[in-house]
Design goal:
CMD-like; mainly alpha; 2 domains; globular; 80% helix; 0% strand; AhpD-like; 130 residues; single chain
Length: 130
């Protein structure tokens, strides 16, 4: 395993949590292994480890881009990760609202619905933290 893969796996676990990464690894097949290797090394090991932006900013950008592109299957996971890292529900709402102004109301509407579902699943503590 090269250094970028090792760093990428460490950051991936820090950002998404061990449980999520362990599930992804457990589902890896020979067919999906090249993609898992790619995202671990290139996305997590080369992009998320750069010094130019702090992790908090990267999380907010990620939520904005996922919202803008309508990548609903990824939004809940990244909202949970952001909350776990101390970004408040209010701040997440601001990111989604701001994204709606530039990427469109339907995209933000869907992301708010997903965000509300995550907050409801996590209980009142997550919503109150904002």
């Amino acid at each position: 395993m090269n250094e970028r893969v090792e760093q990428g796996m460490a950051v991936r676990r820090e950002v998404l949590g061990d449980a999520h990464v362990d599930r992804a690894i457990a589902r890896t097949t020979e067919f999906t292994r090249p993609f898992q290797d790619y995202i671990t090394e290139s996305v997590w090991g080369s992009i998320w480890t750069r010094e130019g932006l702090d992790r908090r900013t990267r999380r907010c950008i990620t939520l904005a881009v996922l919202t803008a592109l309508g990548r609903h299957e990824e939004i809940a996971m990244h909202i949970r990760a952001a909350l776990a890292d101390g970004i408040t529900a209010t701040e997440i709402g601001e990111v989604l609202l701001h994204t709606g102004a530039y990427a469109g109301v339907p995209a933000a509407n869907s992301a708010f619905a997903i965000g509300q579902q995550v907050l409801t699943e996590l209980g009142d503590e997550a919503a109150a933290a904002g």
